[in-house]
Amino acid sequence: MNDELIRIKNDMESFQQKPTSTAIPLYPGIELCYLTFSSDSFSVHHKAMPHIIQINYCKAGQIMWEMKNGNRIYLNPGDFSLHTMKACTDSVLTFPNGIYQGLSIYIDLQEVSVHSPELLKGSNIFETILPEKFCRNDSPVFLAGNEQTESIFSAFFNQPEELKLSYQKIKTMELLLYLGKTELTSSQRLSEYKTEQIRIIREIHDQLTLHMEQRITIEELSRKYLINPTTLKTAFKSIYGTSIAAHIKEHRMEQAAKMLRESEMSIAEIAKAVGYDSQSKFSIAFKSFFNVLPREYRKFPTV
Q: What is the rounded end-to-end Cα distance, in angstroms, of the chain?
């Protein structure tokens, strides 16, 4: 790898709160980095390097990319992206949750074209497939994860120390073979969201979390904010990382726990305050979330 890429990786390692490792050479021209950030954002400044392709995988947290057209794309757990290191020149990566964990694979097309891994010789993965299918005109590609990609990426983590490098090499080959055979479709690509769309979704989020006593349907929100129901659901999940139902339930349970600890309200009153018309339904939901019934939680608030 060239000096510019080494400098970028050194910057990233010094920025990480708990650097997990340095760059790991896998094959000539292919290196792996594990990333853990605890911050709101990270600025990347480097020369344009169209011959180097970077693959990013989000394991935990969230990363937001602002495109040159002003639109934004969110990588959530399981999602991944591919781009040349010309596309990310002078970019700012934002971590909306204040945390990010994942990995990056760097592929130097010039080097691997000369020293291609034995298993991939004659496959055209480095000559045409990666640069033309995924990085044409230096445009990045953002893809939703699926069962197969998750099986590949998850194996990069939590392996016995003596087997780590073997898994890293094998799974990198498997990932490249998967990319070689997959056909890009619109359903695989993550959506870009305009500033106005993001503003609407955040307004909806605020309404739901500030009025948890209300039960508002997707259809009602769609009519009120003039947004397609499908777009609403997919955009909300992209921006907040979970479905509307799961996200608001988490807020409801956390608010209920706070009320149990800090107020003298009855359990029935708390249930109503967080949107449950039945104390029994609330108790079932609370136990499924905290593994303890509300009355028990109140007795032992540190549980």
A: 50
Residue 302 DSSP one-character state: T
Cβ contact 274:255 at 8 Å: yes
Listed residue (93, 103, 99) closest to 72, CA to CA = 93
Q: What is the mean pLDDT of each run of 10 residues along the chain (303 residues)?
A: 56 49 86 87 68 93 81 91 77 80 94 90 88 84 93 96 96 95 84 90 94 93 94 92 93 95 93 94 95 90 51
Q: How far apart are CA 252 and CA 282, in angstroms?
A: 10
Cα–Cα distance measured from residue 241 to residue 178, given in angstroms and rounded to the nearest whole number: 25
CB 42 within 8 A of CB 91: no
Q: How many residues does the chain have?
A: 303
Alpha-helical regions (H) of 16-161:
109-114, 147-154
Classified as helix, coil or strand, 262 is helix
* Contacts with 107 (C-beta within 8 Å, 6 or more apart), sequence order: 29, 30, 52, 53, 54, 55, 126, 130
Q: How far apart are CA 87 and CA 89, in angstroms?
A: 6
- State the maximum Cα–Cα separation within the chain, in Å, rounded to a whole number: 72
Q: Which two tokens stand for residue 101?
A: 């964990």
The C-alpha atoms of residue 51 and residue 40 are separated, in whole angstroms, by 29
Q: Give φ, ψ of 220 to 5 degrees.
A: -65, -40
CA distance 256 to 275: 10
Strands 72-75 and 24-27: unpaired
Structure token digits, residue 226: 């003039």
In 3D, which of 35, 31, 28 has the Cα closest to residue 13? 35
